[in-house]
Design a protein that fits this description.
Length: about 725
């Protein structure tokens, strides 16, 4: 059962991120970076590093606002988007990195501690702290996060002490690298970059956040901005108050310049301890998510009596940390840790970029990021990996690929959707071949629409609607049915002429679609045959669009055809076009919601796709519901608002009450939607006995509005609310 979130943005995301980013490099290596690269060079390094972390933070924000992020943080996001195998290949090394990081930061603390108290045994001190932090995490994240507030206060005090210190005059600024520099620009960059790799620590607390979709973007981006400002200010202050020789040779230059030197020592201790604490909170939650997905044995997710804490995962993480502490040298392991973190952040960027490029209608993040930014972030992460340590990068890639192959051989099953089928969908012939091998999920539903036309020349409004629906990144096929005898018409070139006319229209309107033309003896019965024969592999049509018949007999045939198409699980749209008004000003779309069947889901999604087209840019969508009793208004309004928030579609709910119990729907429709530019109405599937009366009723309703799309959903699954559940 999913735990209710306990933490807000500040304690759950912002604070863990800040305490991990403002670490040992700030206090012990930033002066050396300034001495090697000069002020301008150091600022460029900081800007490049923070730009990569910012792009990653933007991608993280986009993904986290497109799904309900549960326990596992970045692993959860990647696995639910790119699949379990890739998620596991990233998540398992990520967990090991987080667990090893606990030891890494504690060893860093003990080195600074022993410098002040030489009699202390480093391993005993580090082991004692690992056990203490493990106990804090075992008791609960609530208490551990409260400790972080105290550590944050120490860090702030240390920075105040540093900036409060002063010298009689500013030194001569060394803008670029000096003759005494012993490292190249990229070597210095490699030393500094691990300082900004803590941006996803807060996201690892996703399962314990009250509102992950709000807290992860806000907390992550705020922590990046604050820490970047701190690094820039400290860099400028160091360059103006210390000589190049001091910067290169005195790792404790911040203590030398500080007004109260002991606070810098406390800051060094606090920075390493805070990073260790953040890691020991994040790592068990990643392990629990891996256990939940059966990437590792499920027993590792055991909570051992706790309602909220993955206690067995805490014990395992603590044991790994203690073991690493007693192994001793961490130099090469530390490089691999950084590689795994960067690999994770690179995959976050790649995930967000692919989601945007593939363009699934299900990808509707509240925080939108252009795909180019995400792909630049991915390139930056992988470039940084090779610049920092090529050997460690190759080791990290081999380990991740090995995990990927192992999980692929295990053939683990999962019941959430990912964008793999969307990727193959977009890769034409090669994608068609792969599409049959990748499990399909409703998350990857997209409109594959066949628009049947009797005459493209006189039904350009159907062509126009089809071009708008192409915005849904599916397939649109305009299918002209020519009524007549094949022997008489086949040699007249009508099919080629029709296709050329439709293709010309599409080119002029910048739309991508397919065109077809067939000669048929019966428009409606043969349309059913054409529909079943159309498409291949996983690309069968799922939506059919017709123009609404102008005569009663045509409308009767259309409803008989509708029954058969719904039986085939095809959704049916009828466009009733108002010749006098057309689509009006394309500013208002109304969706009349009954809440009794699945028509509303398709109406809302189709309306959303149309509203995203250039022609309808800025149009407002309204969901209208008619009730008979006043007391039902608050509950229905709240229900619609919650639905819109959950499915991430912008629309305005409107609930109306009949003026009298006998007031006909046509009167209400005329009152509220007569001036709307496009109206969506749902259809029932009448029996043959009900058909005549129902067609008459629909025709009466259509007289009360302008251009209207009648909708009957043939899907058996909810194509709108595709929140992944695991």
């Amino acid at each position: 059962m999913q735990n209710k979130g306990r933490f807000g943005t500040f304690p759950g995301v912002f604070t863990p991120n800040v305490l991990t980013i403002l670490g040992i490099i700030l206090f012990l290596r930033l002066g050396w970076v300034v001495g090697q690269a000069g002020l301008i060079g150091a600022l460029i390094i900081i800007v490049i590093a923070n730009l990569i972390s910012l792009l990653t933070g933007l991608s993280l924000s986009a993904i986290s606002t497109n799904m309900q992020v549960r326990t596992g943080g970045t692993y959860y996001m990647i696995s639910r988007t790119l699949g379990l195998e890739i998620g596991g290949a990233i998540g398992l090394p990520l967990y090991l990195s987080q667990a090893i990081s606990v030891a890494f930061y504690l060893i860093g603390f003990t080195e600074a501690f022993v410098a002040v108290y030489p009699v202390a045994d480093p391993r005993v001190v580090a082991t004692s702290l690992a056990l203490l932090f493990g106990l804090l995490a075992y008791i609960g994240a609530d208490f551990a996060l409260k400790i972080q507030f105290f550590i944050l206060l120490i860090l702030a005090s240390a920075l105040v002490s540093f900036f409060a210190g002063s010298r009689p005059h500013w030194t001569t600024l060394q803008l670029f690298s000096s003759p005494g520099s012993t490292a190249s620009f990229w070597q210095v960059f490699a030393i500094f970059f691990p300082a900004v790799t803590g941006i996803a620590v807060g996201a690892s607390m996703s399962g314990d956040l009250k509102d992950p979709a709000r807290s992860i973007p806000l907390g992550t981006l705020a922590s990046i901005a604050v820490t970047a400002l701190v690094y820039i200010l400290v860099t400028v202050w160091l360059a103006g108050h210390a000589t190049v020789d001091e910067l290169l040779n005195d790792y404790m230059i911040m203590q030398t310049l500080a007004k109260w030197p002991l606070l810098i020592i406390a800051g060094v201790w606090a920075s390493t301890l805070s990073s260790a604490l953040g890691s020991i909170l994040a790592a068990p939650r990643t392990l629990k998510a891996l256990a939940t997905d059966h990437v590792v044995p499920k027993i590792f997710g055991a909570q051992l009596g706790s309602i909220t804490e993955p206690r067995l995962a805490v014990v395992v993480t603590t044991a790994i940390a203690v073991g690493i502490i007693w192994m001793g040298n961490l130099d090469f392991v530390a490089a691999i840790i950084t590689m795994f973190f960067l690999n994770t952040y690179g995959m976050i960027n790649l995930t967000a970029g692919l989601e945007q490029l593939i363009g699934n209608p299900s990808f509707r993040p509240q925080f939108r990021v252009p795909w180019i930014f995400s792909l630049l972030g991915a390139i930056g992460c992988y470039a940084a990996m090779f610049l920092i340590d090529t050997a460690a990068t190759l080791v990290a890639i081999c380990i991740s690929y090995g995990v990927f192959l192992y999980l692929g051989r295990r053939a683990l099953r999962h019941d959430w959707g990912d964008i793999r089928s969307g990727i193959w969908f977009a890769l034409s012939r090669f994608g068609l071949i792969r599409l049959e091998t990748v499990p399909w999920h409703v998350k990857n539903w997209r409109p594959n629409i066949v628009v049947f036309l009797r005459s493209p020349q006189t039904q350009e409004h159907l062509l126009e609607v089809g071009t708008w629906l192409a915005r849904g990144r599916g397939f649109i096929t305009f299918y002209h049915l020519i009524a007549g005898q094949v022997e008489q018409l086949a040699g007249k070139g009508l099919r080629d002429t029709s296709r050329k006319h439709m293709q010309k229209y599409l080119r002029e309107h910048g739309a991508v679609a397919f065109t077809e033309c067939s000669i048929v003896e019966n428009l409606y019965s043969d349309a059913l045959t054409m529909l079943q024969a159309h498409g291949l592999a996983g690309l069968e049509p799922n939506v059919v669009l017709f123009g609404w018949g102008t005569r009663h007999a045509m409308q009767m045939e259309q409803f008989r055809l509708l029954r058969k198409m719904v039986a085939l699980k095809k959704s049916v749209l009828f466009l009733k076009y108002d010749e006098s008004r057309g689509f009006g000003e394309k500013k208002c779309i109304d969706i009349w919601w009954r809440g009794q069947d699945r028509n509303g889901e398709l109406m809302l999604l189709i309306a959303h796709i149309i509203a995203q087209s250039l022609a309808w840019n800025g149009a407002r969508m309204r969901i209208l519901r008619l009730l008979t009793r006043e007391e039902g208004v608050p509950g229905v309004t709240r229900h619609i608002e919650e639905l819109l928030h959950r499915v991430r579609v912008n629309a305005e709910p409107k609930v109306f009450i009949r003026s009298a119990p006998e007031q006909p729907f046509t009167s209400v429709l005329r009152q509220h939607s007569a001036e709307s530019d496009l109206v969506f109405l749902g259809l029932q599937v009448p029996t043959e006995e009900q058909l005549t009366a129902y067609v008459k009723q629909v025709e009466e309703i259509l007289q009360s509005t302008g251009t209207c799309i009648l909708v009957r959903n043939g899907e058996t699954e909810n194509i709108l609310d595709v929140d992944t559940e695991a």
